[in-house]
Amino acid sequence: MESQSYHCYSIWGHAILQQEEILQPDRFAASGTITVNGKLVEASGILAYFDTEEEAQHAGLAWARAWIDYHG
Question: How many structural domains does the chain have?
């Protein structure tokens, strides 16, 4: 999980490990969360699947920034 401050919000990018079969490489589901003053503002569902944890986290953060830009 990676967090950042964006405007007056705290945003979080999540990478959720997906292990479908033992012999397949790991994949990570991306999601994002937005909070303000410790209270949940919005959370995404699964945004997409990525090969790396970092890519998934960045996708969650990008979603959160875009949501704030549109709704904020």
Answer: 1
